[in-house]
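[#protein-structures] MJ: dropping Protease PrsW here for a structure pass
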Amino acid sequence: MLATMGAAIAPGIAILSYFYLKDKYEIEPLHMVVKMFIIGLLLVFPVMVVQFGFQEELQLGVFAQSYVLAGFLEEFFKWFIIYYTVYQHVEFDEPYDGIVYAVAVSLGFATLENFFYLREHGGAAAAFYRALLPVSGHGLFGVLMGYYFGKAKFSVGRTRRRLYLVISLALPVMLHGTYDFILLMQQPIWPWLMVPFMLFLWLLALNLSRVALNRSMAAAFGAHYEKEVEKI
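AK: finished. C-alpha cells for Protease PrsW:
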C-alpha cells in the first residue's frame, strides 16, 4: 500500500514543484497551493459520480466518452473550482499565478485518480506509464487553463476577459478530449499518435508558462524587463 501510494503521489508532486518553483519573483503561499491540491483530490469523487451516472443511463460512443465524460466534465469541475476560489483571491496578483493554482488543482485530481488506478493495476510498468501520460497530461492541461485565467484576470475590458475565460475552459477540454480519444481508439497506431501529441503539449505548456512568467516579471519591474528577456 505504501509503495502504491508513493508511486501515485510522486509524479504529481514533482510536476507541481517544477511549475511552483519557476516563479522566482513572488512565489505563491505554500498553504494556498496545498489547499488547491487537496481540493483537486476531492474533486475526483463528484466527477466519478457524474461520470458513472452518464455511463449507466446513456450508451456513449468513443467520441462522447472522450470529449464529454473525460474532457468536458473533468476540466469543467477544475475550472469551476478555480474560478470561484482563487480567481478573485488577493493572492492571485500576477499572470503566472493562474498557472500555479490551476496546475495544483489538476495534479491533485490526477494524483488521487492515479492512486485508484495503481491500487487495481499496480506494478512499475503501470506507474511509469501513468506518470508519463495521465498525470503529466492533467498537469499540462492545468498550465493551459491557468495561462488563460491569468490573461483574463489582467486584461482590460469585459469582452476580452470573458473571451479568455472561455478559452481557459475550451482549450483544455479540446486537448483533454483528444488525449482520451487517442487512448480509446484501441488501434495499434495509438502510440504513434500519442507521442507527438504529448510532445506538442509539453512544448506548448512550457512556452506559455515562460510567457506568463515574463509578463509577471514585466508587471513587477516594468515593460523594459520583458523586452530584455526576449533578447536572451
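MJ: nice. DSSP finds eight helices and no strands in the chain.
AK: one more thing. The two ends are 47 Å apart (CA to CA).
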